[in-house]
Amino acid sequence: MESDVLVVDDSAAIRKILQRVLRQTGMPIRAIHEAGDGQEALDLLKSHPVDLVLTDINMPKMDGIQLLAAVKAAPQWRHIPVMMVTTEGGETRVAEAVRLGASGYVRKPFTADQIKEKLAGILKPAALQ
Amino acid sequence: MSLHELMVDLIRQSSANVFSTMLGVELEPGAAVIENGTPEANDGVVSFIGLAGAWIGTGSVSCSPTLACRICSAMLMVESTGVDEDVLDAVAELTNMIVGSIKNDLETHLGPLGLSLPTVVFGRNFRTKSAGTTEWTVVRFPWEQETLVVKLCLSPAEKSHANCHMMGQTCALDV
Which residues lie below 8 Å from residue B62, measured CB to CB, with a gap of 6+? Predict the structure, then answer.
């Protein structure tokens, strides 16, 4: 089954890199949606249900921790795996993300293999070739 | 080890790691100095990020337009020939990763620190100045006949509070 993925980062450069990495994973993808902050991501989720969210933490308007909390608080979205891809590596931030239900945490700078490895652990084996 | 020496080490490690991981470029160790006084004039791209907490400061990455285009080309795997939005965004994200990694390592010595969003400036013959800051730790990395400059300034927001964190003590919260 093909998946819809949402990539959330205020950096267009990182969104492009993550799109490229996602296409390389072998994961069957129908569409990759993009948002520049947490609020834009929530607005997009209302009209485009997705199967996976990759999000930065430090963003304007609404940060990734607030986005994660909002996704996990909504019954219609709480099943969606959310992976944090961020420069933030402080123990407090990581612990907060885990407590709120983040499925994975990758620190920037990242390699394509690190993203693929985390995704393999998050998604069902059938989702990855 | 002094704070300046620690910052030089962290700038070198972080810059090398970001370049190697995101750009596939092995950066040579850069020469480090302390800069005081009036900053020199810039031509090209400068990206800043603020640090805040018990210690406050700024991290910056600056380079020529040519180098900024090379960074964007290597990061996004596209041909960049002029400084456009993609190039500015790539330099901003590079700064975010370099200064963010430094911040994560500094937190073990200085306590929790926050990171602002990056701001990028592109132009000719401009000077930059952080209010109240006179001393910068500067590392100049040579890369293909050009120079990438990474700078960091840091000072205690409040001396007694910062000392508590440096000595690993818990401190009372001022209300």
Answer: B42, B44, B45, B46, B47, B148, B149, B151
